[in-house]
Write a structure and sequence with these properties.
Layout: H1 21-25, H2 27-34, H3 37-46, E1 56-61, H4 70-84, E2 90-96, H5 102-111, E3 123-129, E4 142-148, H6 172-196, E5 197-208, H7 219-234, H8 240-245, H9 255-259, E6 270-281, H10 283-291, H11 294-314, H12 323-343, E7 349-359
Parallel strand pairs: 1-2, 1-4, 2-3, 4-5
Antiparallel strand pairs: 5-7, 6-7
The protein binds S-adenosylmethionine.
S-adenosylmethionine binds at residues 14-16, 26, 29, 33, 62-64, 68, 95-97, 100, 131-133, 148-150, 153, 155, 308.
Length: 360
């Protein structure tokens, strides 16, 4: 079933599957982000900008291949158009790690039928290949920041996770190490944005959530992914030491963890204007409830997992692994995961948190 060449998968930890695969299979993330659009519209109403001769700047932090950025950027562009006139130049910076599939991003910006540039000659998109834990834009240059399903990825995995791939399925010691790293990274992310945002700007951050009982809704997704890895090791397709290195450096922060840095002097003028958490069903499940097609559900879930997480898992492959080994692994992983999801159809109801952050 391997649907993509493997070099699109061996791009390194934290990156999404290339060749446009993330764009094709990230409908869950698009649905979660859509819940933040009303808050984005409100935030845009409050943005105050400086002198008219300056272009307006929209920064899309963690854009991936751009498909899921089209609607939020379109919302921002049309709000700015209404408030600041039809010809004021607007620059849109799509920011992601250097390993990101920027070819697919530019293709979307050039050709997608829903591209925000289609009818507005005064919008100028650009891309930056640099971590958002670094400074990515000049001081006080950004009017609107958008960051969706990206800041959950940590700058590094602080520990291995015995027997699993995600920190939420680990013991207290490992979870504590991830919580510490997530706290330091969140502080760093906010400090960088505090410097980049203009006074009067807004930053909207959308993140997967976790409820008071510590449930994210993704438990079955990760448990199934992990069970497939165990089976691949049993069948000799994956080595024990490779599986031990497989860690997803992602951490769902609780509300208190997200709120903690605000008020510290280092955030120079950033305040949390609004926080909201909601639950939603993934679109594959909604479709399954209509058509009862368990195989289609299984395949969508497997391809979502593959596009979002498999490059990170493959980054743990031993250096002697050939492209053919990785292709064999990726195909077997996808097939087995699809089968598991198809044989036990169940909802995937996850949480999404939205933060609206203001720069004084
Ligand atoms: C799950 S995708 C989200 C893409 C898109 N924003 C969306 O809502 O679907 C996460 C993206 O964040 C990017 N990312 C993770 N860590 C990053 C970092 N430190 N700096 C910049 N981008 C990062 C990943 O490379 C990936 O493209």
């Amino acid at each position: 079933m391997s649907t993509m060449p493997t070099d699109h998968l061996t791009v390194g930890a934290g990156a999404m599957e290339g060749g446009g695969a993330y764009n094709a299979h990230a409908r869950l993330q698009a649905s979660g982000a859509a819940l933040a659009f009303p808050l984005l519209v409100e935030a845009l109403d409050k943005v105050s900008t400086g002198p008219e001769e300056r272009p307006l700047v929209i920064a899309d932090y963690g854009s991936s291949q751009g498909k899921n950025s089209l609607v939020p950027v379109e919302i921002a562009v049309s709000a700015f158009r209404k408030r600041f006139g039809p010809t004021r130049p607007i620059m849109v910076f799509h920011i992601d790690r250097s390993e990101n599939d920027f070819n697919s991003l530019f293709d979307v910006l050039q050709r997608d039928e829903h591209r925000y540039t289609a009818s507005d000659p005064h919008v100028f998109p650009a891309a930056i290949g640099r971590s958002f834990y670094d400074a990515v834009l000049p001081p006080e240059s950004v009017d609107l920041g958008w960051c969706s399903y990206a800041a959950i990825w940590l700058s590094r995995a602080p520990a291995r996770i015995p027997g699993h791939i995600v920190a939420i399925r680990s013991d207290n010691g490992v979870r504590f190490a991830f919580a510490l790293q997530a706290g330091a990274d969140w502080q760093q992310f906010l400090e960088r944005r505090a410097a980049e945002l203009r006074p009067g700007a807004r930053l909207v951050v959308v993140l997967p959530g976790i409820d008071e009982d510590g449930q994210t809704g993704y438990e079955a997704l990760f448990d199934n992914g992990n069970a497939v890895l165990v089976s691949l090791e049993e069948d000799g397709i994956l080595r024990r030491e490779e599986r031990a290195r497989m860690v997803l450096a992602a951490y769902p922060r609780r509300r208190a963890e997200l709120e903690a840095p605000f008020g510290s002097a280092s955030l120079s003028g950033l305040s949390l204007e609004h926080y909201e958490m909601s639950a939603f069903d993934d679109p594959a499940w909604l479709q399954y409830q209509q058509d009862g097609d368990a195989q289609a559900l299984g395949l969508k879930r497997a391809l979502l997992f593959r596009a979002t997480f498999l490059p990170t898992l493959l980054a743990a492959a031993s250096p002697d692994r050939t492209a053919a080994d990785c292709a064999c692994f990726a195909a077997a992983f996808t097939d087995r995961l699809a089968l598991r999801f198809a044989s036990d159809p169940s909802p995937l109801r996850s949480y999404v948190q939205t933060l609206v952050i203001a720069k004084a």
